[in-house]
Amino acid sequence: MCQSSLHDFLQRLPKCEHHLHLEGALSTKVLFELAERNNIALPSDDEAFRSPEALEKRYQRFTSLDDFLHYYYIGMSVLIHASDFEALAWDYFQHALSDGVKHAELFFDPQAHTSRGIEYSTVLQGFQAACQRAEKELGISSLLITCYLRHLPVPESLSAFDNEQVQESYKSGAVTGIGLDSSENGFAPKMFEKLYAKARKQGLRLTAHAGEEGPASYISDSLDLLKVSRIDHGIQLAHDAELVQRIAREKTMLTVCPVSNVVLKCVKEISQVPIRTFLDAGVRFSINSDDPAYFGGYILDNYCRVHEAFDLSVKEWESIVRAGIEGSWCADGRKEELLAELEKVVKEQEGI
Ligand code: HPA
Ligand SMILES: [Zn+2]
């Protein structure tokens, strides 16, 4: 818990989370339990896999996005049955509830599972079961987003997109949109123009990781070539003043993940995440946890760390949460409910 006088206020804010990889919510404890239950051999030549504690320690010294991704892909190899995916997502929703999340738009990586022989329908069935339970029992609404892996050959993303089960999930509305993740540098947005054109034609929502480690030009190319309506991370935007103005003018939302940026060495400390630049320029952004089980912090930790670094006012927090609600892909009626709740929480805080 942070020491801030605003801690309770930050907890009560009706948060929308837009940048959360469900596979990144796999705790070391569950990872080891599932490895044993599903008979999955973890790498014996890496000391980090001796115990959950050793692995947790290794997570504290990631050197880059790719260093993290190495562990992320090994970790998810323990997920086999629909019930494993359901338990993983349900674990996330428990954290989301205590952190004051009201609406979550959740990424998952189909290719990382189908390449291991796990059917897409198994993955989706598990995640959907948890999402439905979260709506019913916790009052948390959610949407699912399939991410395509940019480090794999482009034709593989096209055939993954065309997969019958994947197509069915888009057509039924079980999955709302697509994203692009994994290693960034050297895998330019342009490579995925065809994939995004197909998704756009089907009326899917579009987002892409850009400007996490990669250059600001990946952000403009994601807008111009992939025609995304939001940008995941986007912190390198701060290096291009003109692009900052454009993003502000076009009201494109960035899904910023401050703790992730520090842990993966994109910045040295939270104060270097361009929160102040974005606020001053009127850039809309939400604050998110990315891969909380790997980075040691869920969404409220991100809010607290940002508050400690930037000492934001109640009005500034209100504008951040409002931008997150407005930038969500849920129905307008749900947005109105969340905006009303935001107004109530702000009024309580101001003693009105
Ligand atoms: O932060 C991330 N960046 C790129 N790919 C990812 N896959 C999971 N998390 C991430
Ligand atoms: Zn991410």
UniProtKB/TrEMBL annotation:
<keyword id="KW-0539">Nucleus</keyword>
<keyword id="KW-0479">Metal-binding</keyword>
<dbReference type="GO" id="GO:0009168">
    <property type="term" value="P:purine ribonucleoside monophosphate biosynthetic process"/>
</dbReference>
<comment type="similarity">
    <text>Belongs to the metallo-dependent hydrolases superfamily. Adenosine and AMP deaminases family. Adenine deaminase type 2 subfamily.</text>
</comment>
<keyword id="KW-0378">Hydrolase</keyword>
<dbReference type="GO" id="GO:0043103">
    <property type="term" value="P:hypoxanthine salvage"/>
</dbReference>
<comment type="function">
    <text>Catalyzes the hydrolytic deamination of adenine to hypoxanthine. Plays an important role in the purine salvage pathway and in nitrogen catabolism.</text>
</comment>
<dbReference type="GO" id="GO:0000034">
    <property type="term" value="F:adenine deaminase activity"/>
</dbReference>
<dbReference type="GO" id="GO:0006146">
    <property type="term" value="P:adenine catabolic process"/>
</dbReference>
<feature type="site" description="Important for catalytic activity">
    <location>
        <position position="233"/>
    </location>
</feature>
<dbReference type="GO" id="GO:0005829">
    <property type="term" value="C:cytosol"/>
</dbReference>
<dbReference type="InterPro" id="IPR032466">
    <property type="entry name" value="Metal_Hydrolase"/>
</dbReference>
<dbReference type="InterPro" id="IPR006650">
    <property type="entry name" value="A/AMP_deam_AS"/>
</dbReference>
<dbReference type="InterPro" id="IPR006330">
    <property type="entry name" value="Ado/ade_deaminase"/>
</dbReference>
<dbReference type="InterPro" id="IPR028892">
    <property type="entry name" value="ADE"/>
</dbReference>
<dbReference type="GO" id="GO:0008270">
    <property type="term" value="F:zinc ion binding"/>
</dbReference>
<feature type="binding site">
    <location>
        <position position="209"/>
    </location>
    <ligand>
        <name>Zn(2+)</name>
    </ligand>
</feature>
<dbReference type="GO" id="GO:0005634">
    <property type="term" value="C:nucleus"/>
</dbReference>
<feature type="active site" description="Proton donor">
    <location>
        <position position="212"/>
    </location>
</feature>
<feature type="binding site">
    <location>
        <position position="21"/>
    </location>
    <ligand>
        <name>Zn(2+)</name>
    </ligand>
</feature>
<dbReference type="GO" id="GO:0009117">
    <property type="term" value="P:nucleotide metabolic process"/>
</dbReference>
<feature type="binding site">
    <location>
        <position position="19"/>
    </location>
    <ligand>
        <name>Zn(2+)</name>
    </ligand>
</feature>
<feature type="binding site">
    <location>
        <position position="290"/>
    </location>
    <ligand>
        <name>Zn(2+)</name>
    </ligand>
</feature>
<feature type="domain" description="Adenosine deaminase">
    <location>
        <begin position="14"/>
        <end position="344"/>
    </location>
</feature>
<keyword id="KW-0963">Cytoplasm</keyword>
<keyword id="KW-0862">Zinc</keyword>
<protein>
    <recommendedName>
        <fullName>Adenine deaminase</fullName>
        <ecNumber>3.5.4.2</ecNumber>
    </recommendedName>
</protein>
<dbReference type="Pfam" id="PF00962">
    <property type="entry name" value="A_deaminase"/>
</dbReference>
<dbReference type="InterPro" id="IPR001365">
    <property type="entry name" value="A_deaminase_dom"/>
</dbReference>
<feature type="binding site">
    <location>
        <position position="291"/>
    </location>
    <ligand>
        <name>substrate</name>
    </ligand>
</feature>
<keyword id="KW-0546">Nucleotide metabolism</keyword>
